[in-house]
């Protein structure tokens, strides 16, 4: 029996063990070695040293919304401190509530298509004198809620001009600044520091001068003092409330108007 077991072990089991070991060694030899590869850093983390681009370094239509002749640049982030370069076909610009401080002559150069500009709610304290004068089709100009102390030359085809809530002084507004604007219908100069009423064109329908420092008016401010037959038919809304002027002391100043000034007066 012992011899039989020895025979079985040497003829069957031992060859099987040896062949299995050889097979395992072969398989192990064929396994590829896995090298550790260091992948490059593609910048998925925030680099604190990288400068954030400024508004004037980015294309206008990336910062703003450009849509069929209209450009909307309202509350732009990063902050916009100057008028951006506009597409040549721009007719309407809305650049409200930014940090624009100055309007230069070149900002609107060769922009003959512009019909409306709204720069409300900026920090504009200076406008170069020729910035708007070469815009032949500009009809509406809004500069409300800025820091202006004087006005530039205005384009002659304006229909509406709004400079409410600035710091305009009479010395900074030429007496004839609006007289030659024969198409002007709406004039808003409320909440400034004016001490006199500028000469007004016959085309006006609405003039707001409330909350200034106007202390006196004359018979020729709104009417023609040398005639009682003159009727100013177009002008149907005047505001002078919030000024030190006492209208009761100027009874002939409004005889040409079809309606008296609106608002509360002393």
Automatic annotation (TrEMBL):
Its Gene Ontology molecular function terms?
A: growth factor activity
This protein's source sits in the domain of life called Eukaryota
Q: Name one GO biological process term.
A: bone development
Alphabetic keyword roster: Disulfide bond, Extracellular matrix, Glycoprotein, Growth factor, Leucine-rich repeat, Proteoglycan, Repeat, Secreted, Signal
Q: Which compartments does it reside in?
A: Secreted, Extracellular space, Extracellular matrix
Q: Which PROSITE patterns match?
A: LRR
Q: What is its main location?
A: secreted
- Per the record, GO CC terms? extracellular matrix; extracellular space
Q: Which SMART domains match?
A: LRR_TYP
Enumerate the InterPro entries for this protein. Leu-rich_rpt, Leu-rich_rpt_typical-subtyp, LRR_dom_sf, Mimecan/Epiphycan/Opticin
Role description:
Induces bone formation in conjunction with TGF-beta-1 or TGF-beta-2.
Q: Which family does it belong to?
A: Belongs to the small leucine-rich proteoglycan (SLRP) family. SLRP class III subfamily.
> Which PANTHER family does the entry mention?
EPIPHYCAN-RELATED, MIMECAN
Q: What is this protein called?
A: Mimecan
The scientific name of the source species is Seriola lalandi dorsalis
